[in-house]
């Protein structure tokens, strides 16, 4: 059975080029082409293609919005972003919305065709430059054990209590110190762990514990 594909792309030449090369394959077929977001939004649920090739920056809306609105209605459809944008925000918003692939325009047609097959069989294809950005993002997020070595015993105790959901006043009462002292310790914890808020500090602490 061939893989059914819809193309959502407002650049007509690129849309038609994709259709031509896809339809030349024996194992896949383009069942719809859309040149704007509204048409795609209206018609994709009834078509329920196996794979949607989705441009991010359409003239009337973002492709990310379309995925956010349709993903629940179309759980069996896989979305591949095919775009000229490589900035972190668009990459991660696309993946959060439910895209399972992210290709940069300019990829070879062989790469695009293999990505369609890959996503259809459960993969998550990405251009090399995108994959490196994603990996780099997670490397930056991973906690450094050396950060925790810098915490004093009291700061570790306070971080443990924060992770248990205690408020500053409750920590102050428990440790027989003032709220101002708790705040000072928390400020030091944020600085040493290179985080900006309590949630990030607790996430790092939990990751370190595990």
TrEMBL record:
UniProt superkingdom: Bacteria
Keyword Glycoprotein included in the entry's annotation: no
Location of the Response regulatory domain: 4-120
Gene3D superfamilies: 3.40.50.2300
GO-annotated molecular function: DNA binding
Biological processes per GO annotation: phosphorelay signal transduction system; regulation of DNA-templated transcription
Residues with PTM 4-aspartylphosphate: 55
InterPro entries with a match to the protein in the record: CheY-like_superfamily, NreC/VraR/RcsB-like_REC, Sig_transdc_resp-reg_C-effctor, Sig_transdc_resp-reg_receiver, Tscrpt_reg_LuxR_C, WalR-like
Alphabetic keyword roster: DNA-binding, Phosphoprotein
Domain called HTH luxR-type: residue spans: 144-209
Stated name of the protein: DNA-binding response regulator
Organism name: Chryseobacterium pennipullorum
């Amino acid at each position: 059975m061939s893989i059914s594909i819809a193309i959502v792309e407002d650049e007509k030449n690129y849309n038609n080029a994709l259709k031509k090369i896809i339809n030349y394959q024996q194992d896949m077929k383009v069942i719809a082409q859309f040149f704007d977001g509204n048409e795609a939004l209206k018609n994709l649920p009834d078509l329920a293609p196996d794979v949607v090739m989705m441009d991010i920056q359409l003239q009337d809306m973002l492709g990310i919005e379309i995925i956010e609105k349709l993903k629940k209605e179309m759980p069996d459809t896989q979305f591949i972003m095919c775009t000229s944008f490589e900035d972190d925000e668009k990459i991660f918003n696309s993946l959060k919305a439910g895209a399972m692939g992210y290709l940069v325009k300019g990829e070879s047609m062989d790469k695009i065709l293999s990505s369609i097959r890959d996503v259809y069989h459960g993969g998550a294809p990405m251009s090399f430059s995108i994959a490196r950005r994603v990996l780099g993002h997670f490397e930056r997020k991973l906690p450094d054990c050396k950060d925790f070595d810098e915490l004093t015993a009291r700061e570790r105790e306070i971080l443990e209590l924060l992770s248990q959901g205690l408020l500053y006043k409750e920590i102050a009462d428990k440790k027989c110190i003032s709220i101002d002292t708790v705040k000072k310790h928390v400020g030091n914890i944020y600085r040493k762990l290179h985080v900006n808020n309590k949630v990030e500090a607790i996430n790092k602490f939990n990751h370190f514990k595990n």
